[in-house]
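Table S2 (text version). Query chain:
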Amino acid sequence: MAVDTCIVSKTRLRLKIKLHPARLCAASCLSVNGLDLLPVAGKTLYSLALTRRKPTRFARGCAIQEKTLRQILEQLQAGEVNTEQVLEKLRSLPFEDLGFACVDHHRQIRRGFPETIYCPGKTPDQTVQIFESLAATGANVLATRGTRDVYDALMASGQVPNAKFNELARTITLEQAPLPRSRAVLPIVTAGTADLPVASEALVTAELMGQRAELICDVGVAGLHRLFSHIGRLQDANVIVVVAGMEGALASVVGGLVKCPLIAVPTSVGYGASFGGLAALLAMLNSCAAGVSVVNIDNGFSAAVTATMINRKIEG
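Corresponding structure-token output:
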């Protein structure tokens, strides 16, 4: 049941909008610790109004951001709020509504890295629009599980000519804000050459997030002596990523030789009874080497993000 009716005027647009109690409640939640960012229901009305017109690129997200930031800065200048309250509110704003996606432009502040684009399930045009939206903020951009078709569409747009496509890793990247490199090296170890696509996804992700990462390839348990020449580097690491298919035993072996956290990535490499990586996943979850944590099958991206967060906490 509607509780109020308002007229919103924005750039020659007049909309009659009925406010539902739930929307009013959601809008009221914008006040935390005495810091009012928007009038009650204001954000709801403004967002609804803007979805009915064709703005210039990024106008929707930027308009809300500018209005909100101006109000925050005025309150800070007047002494009504302190710096910590301002930072807390900035962690939740803003996002850009593209209609089919709400692009999170402040994930960098909240989590330490920007939103990442997962390409499968999106059309090339949708991926391109999200990529360009993220790029417009000046941040680094990463798209995972990308294809040549998506990359060609991105290049055809002409907006991000410096984007790069890594066919093995299936990533599309744009580095426009290089980060200081980590002091420690992040080893990414593969059991076999067939695990390289997943390991390469982890490598590209880690490097874009400022990690000094290196691949140690094809040192699986079928020839375990190949691993021994790398033990020194593994023992110097703050965290290690191990990528393995088949029976996934390499994670337990490495986990028993080092004194740092190990992130295991099961891959879908293997014959029938590997069940598309399920055998490796279960083996890693049942590892008797303490300190082994496991991500999803073929998820090199998540392993790299987790490893990066551990390294950042250690190095400050």
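Notes on Table S2: The domain at 185-315 is CATH 3.40.50.1970 (Rossmann fold). The chain has three domains: 4-97, 112-174, 185-315.
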